[in-house]
Structure formats: C-alpha cells, structure tokens
Design brief:
Elements (H helix, E strand, L loop, with lengths): L6 H19 L5 H5 L13 H4 L7 H22 L1 H31 L4 H20 L7 H11 L6 H14 L4 E4 L2 E6 H18 L8 H19 L3 H15 L23 E2 L1
Parallel strand pairs: 1-3
Antiparallel strand pairs: 1-2
Helix pairs in contact: 1-4, 4-5, 4-8, 5-7, 5-8, 5-10, 6-7, 8-9, 8-10, 9-10
C-alpha cells in the first residue's frame, strides 16, 4: 500500500511518522519543544516553527487521524494535481492555518493582560518567559489563576498537521462535492459539499466558545480551510467558464441528455478522479 501512494503523500507520511517516533522514544532530544509552534509573544517562538510544527504530533491518535486523512484525501488531490501543485497547496494551507492560529492566540493573550498596568504586564511576560515553560514541563502551573492562564496561553505550544489536513478536506470537497464521506465517530455517508460546511461551523463554534476541556486549535483548522478555499479559487478563476460548462454537462447527463465532449478540463492537470466514498 505504501509503495502505491503518490510520491509527495508518501514522503509527508514518512516524515510525520519518523519525527513522532523520535520525539516519543527519545524525548531527550527535545524535538517537541524545538519544533512545536509557540505564541509569537513567547521567547521560545522561532519562524521555522511555522513549518516544523506541521510534522509533530501530540499522541498516537492525533497522528493516526491526520495521517489517515492525508493518505485518503491528499493522495487523491496529488493524483489530480501532481506532486508540485499538491505540495504548494499543502504548505500554503498549513502556513495559513498557523497564521490565523497565532493571530488569534496573540489577541487572546493581549486581551487577557489588558487590565494590567503596562509595567506589570511587561514584568509578568518577562517572568513567564523566564520560568513559565519550565513550570509547565514539570506538570505544574501557577497557583494564581490569572498567571496560570497567561502562562498556558504563552507557553503551551501547538503541534500537528491538522491545519493543512483541513485544507485538504476543503479542497477535496470543492473538487469532489458529491463524494460521500463518513466521519469515524459518525459513520453515516454524507456528501462532501454538505459535510464540510457542517464541520467548519462546528470548528467556529468550538473555537469561539473555548471550552476548558477542549485543547484543539480550532482556528488553525479554520485557517487551513480558508486558505485552501482561497488558493483553489485563485487556481480555478481563469477556468470558470469551463467549470460552468462542466456543471451544465453533469445536469444534462442526469436528465439523459448527451452533449459533445468538453473542450477543456476545468480542474487543470489530470481529469478529476472517479468520485467514491472516503472517511475523515
């Protein structure tokens, strides 16, 4: 199965699994703390983390679900686009996810600190940057609730390819809208064009609510989907007439009307794959 995967999908899968194994079984290398994505107000933040965090995962299930989606949907898109365009799409959506996540995280932190006088705010950030991460790594946090929340927002990093994965899901739904998907925890097939709006609405709701039990980076998911939508829209914009022609052709086929073959492929690259069921 691995050898039958498209090249870029195979490489991404191998890198994610390899880094997970190293960070899990050889924690002394400290890869998680080096490669995870920190709040931009943290001294631990480094620009390379915008990419590196996409190859780190918080646990076996986190890795499994993301890699399952990468193979299921990313493989389909790579076959359609080719490996170059697929990698562009993957990393643009991943970077877009990180950008929105960092923006929201920075705003939330500043909002939390806004009631403090400027000098106290500066002193608290200096103290948290100096010792806050070490406190969390010992499995502890500050007794004062205000300081504890600020430390959590500043020094808990983000890992995972989920932003790019949501970009792939959105791309799949745009190019294969009638393909039926079934969530693992809700195994009822639903067309992709209905599944994705539901998932995006759920992500927005959970992101805004910020439940204490929820440690998912929902705005990263939304950012990946948003940048995926914008990138596909830019790619398809010059081909809109051909896309409209394709839509008319599909409706005609449903009614038994035979039309001449299309002059252009509206999706670019190779023809669209045959639509079939998938899981996310």
């Amino acid at each position: 199965m691995f050898k039958r995967m498209p090249l870029a999908t195979r490489v991404l899968l191998a890198l994610n699994v390899a880094l997970f194994v190293v960070s899990t079984y050889w924690p002394e290398f400290g890869l998680t703390y080096l490669l995870a994505l920190y709040n931009v107000a943290s001294d631990a933040f480094q620009p390379y983390q915008l990419v590196s965090h996409m190859f780190m995962h918080a646990g076996t299930f986190h890795l499994f679900f993301n890699m399952f989606a990468l193979v299921s949907f990313g493989g389909q898109l790579e076959k359609l686009w080719g490996w170059r365009r697929f990698l562009i799409f993957y990393f643009v959506t991943g970077l877009g996810a990180a950008a929105l996540h960092l923006s929201v995280g920075y705003v939330e932190l500043q909002s939390h600190l806004s009631d403090l006088p400027v000098q106290e705010r500066v002193e608290l950030l200096e103290r948290l940057n100096d010792e806050g991460a070490k406190v969390l790594r010992r499995g502890q946090n500050y007794v004062e609730a205000f300081d504890a929340k600020a430390n959590f927002m500043l020094n808990i990093p983000t890992v995972g390819a989920s932003g790019a994965i949501f970009g792939l899901l959105l791309g799949f739904a745009m190019l294969f809208p009638d393909a039926k998907l079934a969530l693992i925890f809700f195994p009822v097939p639903v067309k992709a064009k209905y599944m994705m709006p539901f998932m995006m609405g759920l992500e927005l709701y959970l992101g805004v609510k910020s439940f204490s039990w929820d440690n998912m980076a929902h705005f990263a998911h939304l950012g990946g989907a948003l940048f995926g939508f914008l990138l596909i829209w830019l790619w398809l914009k010059p081909r809109m007439p051909a896309i409209v022609e394709e839509m008319v052709r599909r409706e005609a086929a449903k009614q038994g009307v035979q039309l001449p073959p299309p002059r252009h492929n509206p999706y670019g690259g190779r023809p669209p794959l045959q639509q079939g069921p998938g899981q996310a």
